[in-house]
Every structure is written in C-alpha cells, then in structure tokens.
Amino acid sequence: MKIEIRDIEIADWSTIARIYQLGITTEIATFETEIPSWSAWNDIHLQSCRFVALLENVIVGWAALSPVSSRCVYGGVAEVSVYVDTNYSRKGIGTKLLQELIGRSEKEGFWTLQSGIFPENKASIQLHKKLGFREIGYRERIGKMKNGIWRDNIILERRSKIIGMD
C-alpha cells in the first residue's frame, strides 16, 4: 500500500472537511465543533506546508500548519494539524503526514512545531512522540466545549535539529 502525498488543492476541500468532521465527531481531536468554510480554513493555515495523503487516488488524510503568533520573532514556530480518515486508522497515514510536515517545515525555515492534544487522544500523542516531539506542558481546563465540559491539553513540541541552531 503506497501512500502518496500532494499539495492541497481547493477542489479537495469537501473531502478535507469530511475528514475534519470525523475528527470533530470523536470529541478528542479538536475544540472545534463545526467545520469552517474553505475561506476561513484557508485564512488560518499557512500557505506552505499543507497537503493531503492519498491511497489509490483517494484522499485519506490531511496536514497543515498554522502560525502561533503574528509577531515576527515567532515566524519559525507553527502549530500542527494532522487528520486521518477514521476508516484508515493504523495504516501509517498519520506517520507519513507528520514526517512530510516535519521535512517540509524545515525546508520552509520552521525551527519549532507544536501541538496541543487532548490527553485522551493517546494515538496522536504516541505518533508525535515517535517522531521526536516531547511533552513540554499541561494546560488544565484550557478550553470549554459547547456542551459545557472543560478540556485539558498536553503541549508537545519538536525542535528542528537543522533550523535555528545558530
């Protein structure tokens, strides 16, 4: 089974949105409760480092980066988003997407990638740690879901070994 990676195209949005909705439905992937419009999603994600994973020409996952701040000193720091269609879990798609995101982000000059992950999302935490992310913090009751339940976040980061070393 060969996983192919290619840049996101606007025509991919309905499939990306469907996969995002699957993540929302799990209630352990994001604080989001509704899919944004393409325009809103496009505005909050960086133009570089956004792509889809395909199996037999079917989009089965996506990855993108978001800036963590508008301040120029944080220009090399980005927030990671990786989503895999739940029907394709445990096939190495998340690993391939995150590996590609790491490689491309370094080519674009990013020295730190970070993720805020719900403690219940053990698969995502394990994936990030496998690819060199380390736990740097725990945010207790950092966000409140629409249903009134407060959620915690584990903060992980990966520092590049080739960018930002000088």
Give a brief description.
It is built from 4 helices and 7 strands; from the N terminus they run βααβββαβαββ. With 166 residues, it is of the alpha+beta class. It has a 7-stranded mixed sheet.
Strands of the widest sheet, in order across it, are: 1-2-3-4-5-7-6
- Please state the CA-atom Rg, rounded to the nearest Å: 15 Å
Largest beta-sheet details:
7 strands, mixed
The computed structural class is alpha+beta
Q: Tell me the helix content.
A: 25-40%
How many strand segments? 7
Tally of contiguous helical segments:
4
Q: Name the beta content range.
A: 25-35%
**What's the SSE pattern?**
EHHEEEHEHEE
- Summed over residues and divided by their number, the pLDDT gives a mean of 94
Taking pLDDT < 50 over at least 5 consecutive residues as the criterion, the unreliable ranges are none
Termini separation (Å)?
40 Å
Shape: globular
Oligomer: single chain
Structure report:
The chain has 166 residues and is of the alpha+beta class. It is 27% helix and 34% strand. Strands 1-2-3-4-5-7-6 form a 7-stranded mixed β-sheet. Strand 4, helix 3 and strand 5 form a beta-alpha-beta unit. The longest helix is centred in the middle third of the chain and has 15 residues, at 93-107. The model has no long low-confidence stretch (mean pLDDT 94).
Map the helices and strands.
Blueprint: E1 3-7, H1 13-26, H2 38-44, E2 50-55, E3 58-67, E4 77-84, H3 93-107, E5 112-117, H4 122-130, E6 134-144, E7 150-159
Parallel strand pairs: 4-5
Antiparallel strand pairs: 1-2, 2-3, 3-4, 5-7, 6-7
